[in-house]
Amino acid sequence: RVAVVGAGVSGLAATKCCLDEGLEPTCFEQSQDIGGLWRYTEHIEAGRPSLYSSVISNTSKEMSSFSDFPYPEEFPVFLPNALLLDYLRRYAEHFGLREHIRFRTTVVSIRRHPDFATTGQWNVVTEADGQQVSHVFDAVMVCSGNFSEPSLPLHCFPGIERFQGQYFHSRQYKHPDLFQGKRVLVVGMGNSGVDIAVEASRVASKVTICTGQGAWVLSRVFERGYPWDMVFNTRLMSLIRNNLPRPLSWALINYQMNQRFNHENYGLQPEKSYLVREPVLNDDLPSYILTGRITIKPGVKEFKENSVVFHDYPGEEPIDIVVFCTGYNVSFPFLEESVVKVENKHASLYKYVFPTHLQKHTLAVPGLIKSLGAIMPLTEMQSRWVTRVFKGLCQLPPQSVMEKEVNEKKKKQVQWFGLSFDEVLKTEWVVYMDTLASFIGAKPSVLRLLCRDPWLALTIFFGPCSPYQYRLGGPGHWEGARQAILTQWDRTLKPTRTRVPAGSSSSFPSLLAVVGFLLLLAAVIFGF
Which residues cross the membrane (predicted)? Predict the structure, then answer.
């Protein structure tokens, strides 16, 4: 019996993976419906993530799908939150997940059972309709996410107490109406910060983004108009990025990030460009800077009654509203602090999933990793691995080995507003997915496929590393995986080719046919 906390993206994947492995999941969801972060509500609900109405996914539908459940071909390539929620509902319906979810049920506490050292069991206390109930579970999957407790470090902003205007955390933002005719300052340059600044600039009299670090800005529309992640996250590109000497690797990333526009000319160049932080996905920011709708400034030095002073910048800037886009705390109020150690707002977990110090590895926390790629297939892969660890089919290394790896990753973190962003190269999407897939025996072998199914092998290696690749073989094998891979460009282009009849799905395969075998031989030399 497995307790799953939360029925968002991670919780649904965890519940489904438990069923696939013959386990008995019970998913506890404190709200009245599934969806987690992606279920928009007009009002902020305590303990739940809060979404603004205009949110669109940053990763394309083919790269964001669960590995055995493609999106409908008519869905747009990047999805408004309502359509993404629709997909999650279809997923839950298709795999019969709702019957395993207890809605309006809050997890109050999770504690080790008295005989935990022997059984690995957990005492789970839940509350529904004012009544608390105690359960015993053999394992627990914590899928509550980390977008519920906003981080608002006001002590880092001198003078904020005397500021007479309005200020709030981005979690409270829903619509841009409140910015009408106002002078707006957005503090922080993550995805939410830039989205809010772009929306505000359409109605505000002036919008300023302040950032002490800068950021890489990517567009959803990448090379030759293809979705960014279907070009960036390929096995070939991953191989190159991870096998080039470090200076050349940084140079390649700098080149790729600056292809669309020179970040330095726009005041966006990261302060230390050799430290690869999570890029911002936004299609409008560069043009809005060019047209004067948005201005980029350094970090805040201090606030005054009706203005702000920036570091190394002369004068004061009058402002009416401040939006703090300073991220979220990692918090598990129902767990003992000793179970999941949170330091510097970073949970110390082996492979970003398992606490290292427990006598029995029967508790996991899927979904806490930040990587330059889609979260859905990633958290699904984590759950596929976790459920096999629970069953004893996969073994974890000794505690000392796990702790050594966790500590090494801590040394390679970039601090920003107290939040920890792992270097992308250390948590590269393809590498991480392959690592977990190899644990469960689901990593595809390009060389083996080359002999048996050359076209599929070439598509897998040079094309997008779509989630269906991890259903070609091993546990959880899906008969439709091959067809899903070979038709991924059809589903990508179907919703955009609405004026003329669809021709060939992509010029990309023809390129593969020309250079495929030569590059694959080079890849073998690299040791792929």
Answer: 508-527
